[in-house]
Task: structure prediction
Amino acid sequence: MKQYYFTAASLPLLSIDSKPGISIESFLSTCQLHVDPADYQILINSSITVPENENSLSGIAQLCWAWEKSLRNELAKLRAEKMNLSYENYIRDGEVVFGTQRIAQEAIKIDSPLDAENFLNTARLAFLESLTVGHYFDLTFLVIYYLKLQILERIENFESERGYTRYQQIYKNILSAYEAGGSEI
Result:
């Protein structure tokens, strides 16, 4: 496995408590200059979003997606159960990964959607951090760093005040439709 000492050593430390010291664009630009083209392709195929083709993932990205998919499936099961729905239509094929059931159970207990999302993102970052042991300058480190950077950038985009305003709008629309006697809410 190739080692990317300069690239890894030049990256700023990432923390959930502060804004990332590098943008995704700058990170990818740096990697494109210093990483083997085949490894760079693996890197850019790694994402926190649902992959278009799960078979395009390899190595650590595949492991991370299996964990994320398991977490999402567990959340879907619990949400469906809360709404007395069958969960089969809401889950993806995949194994249950150890620990994701407990995380989903804890998250579902949290009343605030923002707090629940913060809890889930903290769990995601902790999972990724657990995978870095023994990987300090290799492609695995860079993929994990990229995934963490995506999560942190996503967190940065949450604006509680704007979200609460939007929530109130949606809630007001639902109440208005209900009071008007609409069956379609």
Observations:
- The chain has one domain: 5-179.
- The mean pLDDT is 90.
